[in-house]
Amino acid sequence: MRITASKGLLLRIAFGGIATVVAVFLLYLAGSVGLYDLDYPLSLLPPRGRALTTGLLATLGFMTVVMPLGFGLGFFFGWARTSKVWLGRAVATTYVELFRGMPPIVLIAFAVLITIVVFRGNDRIDLFAFASLAGVVALAAHSGAYQAEIIRAGILSVPTGQTEAAEAIGMSKATILRHVTLPQMFRVSLPALGNEFASLIKDTSLLSTIGGLELTFQGKNLSAVLAVGGGNLDLVIIIWVEIALLYFLITFVVSRTLQAVERRFRVPGLEAAQL
Amino acid sequence: MISVRNVHKWFGELHVLKGVSLDVKKGEALVIIGPSGSGKSTLLRCMNLLVSPDEGDILIDGVRVNDPKIRPEWVRQQVGMVFQSFNLFTHLTALQNVVIGLTKVKRLSSTEAERIARFELERVGLADKADAYPAQLSGGQQQRVAIGRALALNPKAVLFDEPTSALDPEYIREVLDVMTKLANEGMTMVVVTHEMGFAQNVGDRVLFMADGIVVEEGTPEEIFERPQQDRTKTFVGTILG
Questions:
Q1: For the whole model, what pTM was predicted?
Q2: CA distance A144 to A72
Q3: Quick one: pLDDT at residue A1?
Q4: What pLDDT is recorded for position B194?
Q5: Are B95 and B126 in contact (CB under 8 A)?
Q6: Lower Cβ count inside 10 Å, N or C end of chain B?
Q7: 3-state per-residue secondary structure call for A15-48
Q8: Is residue B42 very low, low, confident or very high in pLDDT (cuts 50, 70, 90)?
Q9: What distance lies between CA B181 and its chain's CA centroid?
Q10: 3-class secondary-structure state, position B172
Q11: Are residues A169 and B90, on separate chains, in Cβ contact within 8 Å?
């Protein structure tokens, strides 16, 4: 494992910056040829700014819960699916099939409804907060099912000779997992995990259906307000372009971060082409 | 030092070991030969409990080790193993491959572990490759690192499972040289191999296995020049041409 050289890091940041500038330029080019009106009323700027800021913060907030929780569930159940113990495999397989087999939006709805039914009439808790939390957990569980398979693929990619050699020098099961299997499986799993994270970031938009005040919710809300106020379609387009850009930026930062992690797990002599 | 007593092993319906008994004396190099599928590898794996015998006993210095009260991890520290496909940890350098057993199994400090590991790499002639990763080493070099990894734990005996079978011909010599040196230093070794030159020159005793049983055993001269059993005669005839 090597720490990334700072020169390479600067290059990658520069590349990201250039990509963003190009994207923004293209959008304004589209505006200048009349795809939408650039001269939107400036009076609408502050409320829109506020709405998008709260939306962005909520989306980031959901991410910070859903991503680690989804990864934790994925890691645990992915590992359990490779277990030698029958019960471990059975429970993990049931989890994966169940949560992978339903649309996340249905899972979120179920989680919220069940929470409401169970805690209805209990004055000591904030029912709305509880229901929202259940929705967030349901989304994490959905992603966890996908991540479990990614982790399982990684574990299966480590040749049995590696664990056998570790056993032969007297390593315990826990030591083998920590020092032999994990470092080798992550090398294989990280690209697919990056894919899943990118998808999950955008899936947080599904939490708008249960009143999560995140980016997509704010977009829908602003659009509705503008449509009522005389139907300023140009401004609606701009809002959605801005929301798209924000999602793009978040996803870009996360996937670049994961690629930096991937570089840390690179093994000389076994590396793929430069990222 | 290592005694195998009437060991049986089944893999499902397949009866791989059908009552094998043998003794490995301290300081001797015991060579096991035999056609593939005769149970040689399984027998080796029983001796360090990578495979647990279904029947019979494994004794190390008179202590029965295939006993639920004895941790197999402990047994494996006493008996090192070298594999046909090297099985070096691909994510670690040559040095780290030798260090990891010392720090994570024997719980030595990293300075002490590194000192021992560098000594072991020196012993197998690879001091200059300490920082190379397995994928950057030739097969022969990888196998020598693997021998160093086994020796670092200071085992009572080392088991070799066809250590040169996966090697290109030009790398076989360097591995056999290291093994010969070890045998001359008095290391207790059990070697499954098809290298008849090694068996004749280095082996103190040769044991011929077929179909899960020990067919014949004796000195290299007895087995290779005056085999008694028909199956031994056929096998020896085939491999010596």
A1: 0.82
A2: 7
A3: 43
A4: 87
A5: no
A6: C
A7: HHHHHHHHHHHHHHHHHHCCCCCCCCCHHHHHHH
A8: very high
A9: 15
A10: helix
A11: no
Q: Which of B39, B26, B62, B80 is nearest to B204 (CA)?
A: B26
The band of B152, judged by pLDDT with boundaries at 50, 70 and 90, is very high
Q: What is the pLDDT of residues B200-214, one digit of tens each?
A: 999 999 999 999 999
CA distance A28 to A46: 20
Residue type, B9: K
Residue B64: strand pairing partners = B59
How far apart, in whole angstroms, are the C-alpha atoms of residue A163 and residue A226? Answer: 62
The alpha helices in A43-181, defined as continuous H runs, are 45-81, 86-100, 104-119, 127-157, 160-168, 173-176
Q: How far apart are CA A58 and CA A212, in angstroms?
A: 8
Partners of A268 on chain B (C-beta within 8 Å) are 133, 135-136
Q: Measure the CA–CA gap between A9 and A21, rounded to whole angstroms.
A: 18
Statement: residue A144 has pLDDT above 90: yes
In this structure, is the dihedral angle defined by the CA atoms of residues B71, B73, B78 and B84, taken in order, positive or negative? positive
pLDDT per residue as tens digits for the range A188-244: 899 999 999 999 999 999 998 888 888 898 888 888 877 776 667 777 888 888 889
Tally the residues of chain A. Answer: 275
A42 touches chain B (CB under 8 A): no
B101: nearest CA partner in chain A = A169
Distance CA A35, CA B81 (A): 71
3-state secondary structure of A266: coil
Question: What percent of chain A is predicted at pLDDT more than 70?
Answer: 87
Nearest Cα to Cα of residue B180 among B165, B167, B166, B195: B195
Residues with Cβ within 8 Å of B157's Cβ and at least 6 positions away in sequence, in order, are B1, B2, B24, B78, B79, B80, B187, B188, B189, B190
B136 touches chain A (CB under 8 A): yes
- Predicted confidence at residue A2, as pLDDT, reads 46
Do B151 and B120 meet the contact criterion of CB atoms below 8 Å apart? yes
C-alpha A220, offset from chain centre: 21
Biggest CA-to-CA distance, chain A: 76
- The larger pLDDT score, comparing residue A275 to residue A29, is at A29
Distance CA A16, CA B89 (A): 35
